[in-house]
Amino acid sequence: MNQKRNIYFILLLTIILISFNSGIINAASNSNQLNLQPPAFNSKIAVVSFLIILILVLFIWEPIPIGIISLSIPVMLASLHNWTKVSTDQALSGFSNNATVTVMAMFVLSRGIQNSGAVQILGSKIESFVGNNQKKQVGTIAGLTGLTASAINNTPVVAAFVPMVTNLARRTNVSPSKLLIPLSYASMLGGTMTLLGTSTNILASEVSMRLINHPFGMFEFTKLGIIAFGVGLIYLMTLGYYLTPERITSEDQDLMEGYEMEKFLTEVEIKENSPLLGQSIGEVFKEADEDLDIVQITRAEEQFMEPLNVKTIRAGDHLVIRANRTTLLDFVDTKGIKLLPDIQVSQNKLEDSVQGQKVVELVISDNSFIAGQTINDVHFLERYNASLLAIRHGERITHNQLKDFTLRSGDVLLLLVTESTLDRLENNENFIIEEESSELPDYKKSDIFLGLTIVGAVITLASLNIVSISIATLGGVIAMVASKLVEPKEIYEAINWEVFFLLAGLIPLGVAIEQTGTAKFIAQQLLRATGVFPPVFILSLFYLFTAVLTSVISNNASVVLMIPVAVGAANQIGANPFAFVLAVTFAASSAFLSPIGYQTNLMIYGPGGYKFKDFIVVGTPLLLILSFIIPVFIALFWGI
């Protein structure tokens, strides 16, 4: 989302919240039918409302990492205790909360399932079943993703399926753009089928327990989740299929063509009288101070790539240079370099099967250490001995100033790498290699059975209330390590620490919203505008508002902010508060409208080459359909 859109949203949100606080929203003056006196606006509500606005602005603007913003929340709440009514113990309660512990453990359990090979083997069976029938591909990928995401965290499921989906698209001449949005949407909807499907459900259960003494059972809302998933699946195979664009065409089999590299890669030859002879590559291009990189050197029919800085330039060397035409011509004019315009630098030319050089696409995964930094900041090229050719962010492809480009989750790097580098990157959880190997690793059937058994045991123990879900998942972590499906050091790598800090900060914020009466106050202002409508319509509005909010901030943040307000509204109109909790929870897994509100959307944004508006076009009809269906079935199943 660009800066202008951020500003517009912040202004709109600020106006709405100020309107709540000042009682401007009174469009339905006949809400006196409720016979309820709104809570008096006071300094406590003012301070907490200001904190909500501030935190939302910071989440959207993200001047510092989300994790650091989240850590600042307990500090602010405790420092403003006289107004927030949050003690030091309450401010720190998020770190030891059952939801936080359970979510941490679920990341590790998901890693164990990935390591066992269960997800990869499931994915490998798709191509033989669907062939090149595009609608069948969409249905099968969405169905398999949703069912898998119902049992383990949906983020690693998408991470494992992205290479499989892009490979399938290339081999069957289908645009990966047609398959990746269904992959992400299905993972969200699949996460609504069980308590363990997503961190949002676990957090919502804890908030529901605190507010109305009703935590979620393991399969309590499964029937509603199946309906939501079924509706989503039908939509993605029908109307959604036609609305999903082909941003990356199926003809782009040569990655160099897909990234328009013909304008930025040129092969040159070093002349006998070149003043560069005897100098190292590093010396020459440090002095040049231009946006120009050496991608590859060919000398006596042998190819060399990064690290090239120490290579000495010799007469007759052929260099593949990445630069725009103007920069290149300015550089070669006085350097004794001969342009070779008749030689096209294609993917086949750069790749060398003998030396194991390969052009690949690398996706920056969710919570990658490189997100928010540049290539130079982390010394990526030196660390991984790779040559960087281009960067894709959504639809936009960048060819210039690559080493100073600030990377984000979902960005795609076009790299020239060796086999050893490719192996390192494939085994690094910070990255996703889009083109997976044609041969799966030698997974053991016993490991797959063991991994699934451990997860099954966790689900059984928690669902039968034999032990709490937090203890059951921690026991599952111990079992994963004991069975060597997860190495001890992998525990720390598997946990998404940004999500951990986010939960730790948001949980006490929810306490402040409730204890100061802010939730009741905002709920009353909402009801002033909607009190004339039936409860199921109000429920639908809460679903829509939460889903839109989730598409801009995050699913966990929207749950913490909206559940107290929804419960307050339900109590004031005499409705079933649990129905409102469920509506908000399901809406928090309906971030269909943007690529930034949910991790899985970010992960497919670059690989699909999408525009921001693509999520609005494909997601809006689905959101409107679900905003009608989910409240209706909540009313049928649980009453309202």
From TrEMBL:
The RCK C-terminal domain, residue ranges: 253-337, 347-431
GO cellular component: plasma membrane
Superkingdom, taxonomy of origin: Bacteria
GO MF, one annotated term: monoatomic cation transmembrane transporter activity
Database matches in PROSITE patterns: RCK_C
Entry keyword set: Membrane, Repeat, Transmembrane, Transmembrane helix, Transport
Membrane topology recorded in Swiss-Prot or TrEMBL: Multi-pass membrane protein
A Pfam family recorded for this sequence: TrkA_C
First and last residue of the signal peptide: none
GO biological process terms held by the UniProt record: potassium ion transport
Predominant location: membrane
Compartments it resides in: Membrane
Protein name per Swiss-Prot or TrEMBL: Di/tricarboxylate transporter
Record-linked PANTHER family: BASIC AMINO ACID ANTIPORTER YFCC-RELATED
Chain ranges passing through the membrane: 43-61, 179-204, 224-243, 449-482, 494-512, 532-553, 573-594, 615-638
